[in-house]
Amino acid sequence: MTLYMIRNKGMEMYVINFLVMADIPQSIRHLVVDEIMQGESQLKVGIQLNICLSTVNRIWMHYKKTRRTDNRVRSGRPKITTERQ
């Protein structure tokens, strides 16, 4: 378990086990964007949803740039799955 301390305007807050952007489900990404659009600060959104501030910022910047919250398509070889017998 990792404990992080965040300081903002003289307040100290402790947060445990942040999620990184790759682990964030689509529904949470929508919540992040909705909360920020309603006027919440990125810090408060991150603390409420237990997401790292940099991840919240990255989701918001991606939304402002593309107006989407989904992951971008990546190039690469598709994974091949086979049935086990």
Please provide a brief summary of the model.
The protein is of the alpha+beta class and 85 residues long.
Distance between the termini: 39 Å
Topology, number of strands: 2
Radius of gyration: 16 Å
Poorly predicted sequence stretches spanning 5 or more consecutive residues: none
**Shape designation:** elongated
- Count of runs of 4 or more consecutive helical residues: 3
Give the rounded overall mean pLDDT. Answer: 78
Strand order of the largest sheet: 1-2
SS-based class = alpha+beta
In helices, the fraction of residues equals 40-55%
Outline the biggest β-sheet: 2 strands, antiparallel
Q: Spell out the helices and strands N to C.
A: EEHHH
Query: How big a fraction of the residues is strand?
Result: 5-15%
Description:
The structure is a single chain. With 85 residues, this protein is of the alpha+beta class. It has a domain at 19-66. It has helices spanning 26-37, 42-49, 53-66, and strands at residues 3-8, 11-16.
